[in-house]
Design brief:
Helices cover 67% and strands 0% of the residues. By secondary structure, the chain is mostly helical.
Length: 70
């Protein structure tokens, strides 16, 4: 059984993980240092990048010949 390929290349996937980790780490630091709620932006960006990583992972785990729901 062959697995399907995701829509991200290996390099893009690594950069997405790096971006997720940096944004997720920056959120609590900026929440501590900044008085306003601008740290929520970092949290939202981290969640959006995590969603892309999860969608790519799901596409990679799908068998190669499986139909997609469009």
């Amino acid at each position: 059984m062959h697995q399907g390929s995701g829509f991200l290349t290996t390099r893009q996937r690594r950069l997405a993980w790096l971006g997720f980790l940096l944004a997720a780490a920056q959120a609590p630091v900026s929440a501590k240092l900044v008085a306003d709620s601008s740290w929520l932006f970092s949290l939202v960006v981290a969640l959006m990048v995590a969603t892309v990583i999860i969608a790519d992972d799901a596409a990679r785990r799908r068998p190669a010949g499986a139909p997609t729901s469009e």
